[in-house]
């Protein structure tokens, strides 16, 4: 069959700082192609809706699948499905991905029959089974992870091995459009999948059932050798949790003489525990490191169940700087912040040399915050769930909250963008421009056109065609098993040695970890 894989348009944040290749959709496309289908891929981050309709006319697919990784993209996906059903009534349409896996029934209801099914969980594990069922007239409800208007299939399953799934990178038509910071162009790659921690604001662990699986160093190195882009974004939720795995990949890269520049995300406690791994990586091309601090005080850290002290966070920042790495930090702005709190955070951002990103507390389906806060939502417009809009009641009047938020985000613009950034990166910028790469240079002056309190406030006034259902009363006692897409499989699903498993549980649950740790 002919299959068109579609990734939706860019979100607010990514219109400035980065544009990442749709690795998840490439993996699904690769799995579909391996199952014998003719596959094309369209990324609306880099192309337009006009390109979509043109590809439908020319390619005439039997199946269209959409990536529903981000909640804010749900309305766009629904609009495309409705119009596609009107123009091409016989096309089978399904949606998969992270966010829609948690809200499958809601999305199906909003689609009013234009979506044939939702594929929950790891799409690259089951897309071949679903396409086989569609092609041969079988019951799609026999496919793991499928939900349709007629019912629900067996629970979703994992891919048998991360070594067996490879992304169809060759299907992207504009690979030079993907970048992150000065890594322009940049490809994305995964070394591991899943997260063994359980932060209250995150749904990575609830999606993967607290599993943690790794690809072999040899397969990773093979993939790096095939990637043409000089920049690499490592998409792991927490890089190098397992010291031995991180070091083995580094050794394989050194042995083969692979020359790339890397950007990754990790936790402060992982960085401090596995210092030698990060030191070795800084010697083979690691240049950017993103650390999700989330808060600048102990109360905030406790709220997010980070279980990393402020002292440890600052120690990690200092160590990363000592390696010569460019450090980026994320801080979550809570709707309860007043002017004084914003000013305190602004001063802190000005005092440190690092890049500080400010996001907004956002209850996402699949997170503990969602189950505790969803009843308090001030909006049911999916488009506002992008970590840049306030969707919970704010202490300040909403216009003032956005003024303070953007004023705080402006610190990043002042310190690290515009002419200031160009002075520090003149040589890099000149090289990129000589090579025809303009993504990084263009983004240096985009901040004010995207981050604008009046525009953010106006977003709340837009008519919303698709609304989240009204949520039930907040859950007082939450059974974590109700959160999962892939059910928890315990210790056997985590590719960690015993010492690392103990470290994870200690940092996850505090001093009582040994008594409470999973079997």
From TrEMBL:
GO MF term set: cobalamin binding; iron-sulfur cluster binding; metal ion binding; methyltransferase activity
Cofactor names: [4Fe-4S] cluster
UniProt protein name: Hopanoid C-3 methylase HpnR
Species name: Acetobacter pomorum
CDD domains referenced in this protein's UniProt entry, alphabetically: Radical_SAM, radical_SAM_B12_BD
NCBIfam families linked: HpnR_B12_rSAM
Keyword Metal-binding appears in the UniProt entry: yes
InterPro entries: Aldolase_TIM (IPR013785), BchE-like (IPR051198), Cobalamin-bd (IPR006158), Cobalamin-bd_sf (IPR036724), Elp3/MiaA/NifB-like_rSAM (IPR006638), HpnR_B12_rSAM (IPR027564), Methyltransferase_Class_B (IPR034466), rSAM (IPR007197)
Domain Radical SAM core: 181-395
Gene3D superfamilies, A to Z: Aldolase class I, Cobalamin-binding domain
Chain's gene name: hpnR
GO biological process terms on file: methylation
Domain of life the protein comes from: Bacteria
Ranges of residues in domain B12-binding: 8-141
Keywords, alphabetical: Iron, Iron-sulfur, Metal-binding, Methyltransferase, S-adenosyl-L-methionine, Transferase
Gene Ontology cellular component terms for the protein in this record: cytosol
